[in-house]
């Protein structure tokens, strides 16, 4: 575990998850601490293999969309590919974890 993520991650996967959080901050305009909390909530009980874990077959932005949005009525989520995605306004945003939840990062400076 790291100070921000609750999963066991080697250096390569730590970078991958940090890239996912950074994508969420940039694309969805949310604080980094919220992005990390959303990732922790989704993956905290997952067994993540050393880099490259199977999830690395997709770019971090692919997984970021699934952490942030619910799938549409057809079970689809955006891929993160420019020009390939459907209208994001048709998707419902998943609620952020409560701030009293243990999934939030431990350090305030992670909210940058």
Report the helical percentage.
25-40%
Give the topology string: H per helix, E per strand: HHH
Average the pLDDT over all residues and give the rounded result. 89
SS strand fraction: under 5%
Uncertain runs are 108-112
Secondary-structure-derived class: mainly alpha
Notes on the protein architecture:
With 112 residues, the protein is mostly helical. It is 35% helix and 0% strand. The chain is built from three helices and no strands. It is globular. Mean pLDDT is 89; it is low at 108-112.
Tell me the layout of helices and strands.
Layout: H1 11-28, H2 32-43, H3 60-68
Helix pairs in contact: 1-2, 1-3
What's the short version?
With 112 residues, the protein is mainly alpha-helical. The chain is built from three helices and no strands. It is globular and about 35 Å long.
Q: Which keywords apply here?
A:
3 helices, globular, mainly alpha, 0% strand, 112 residues
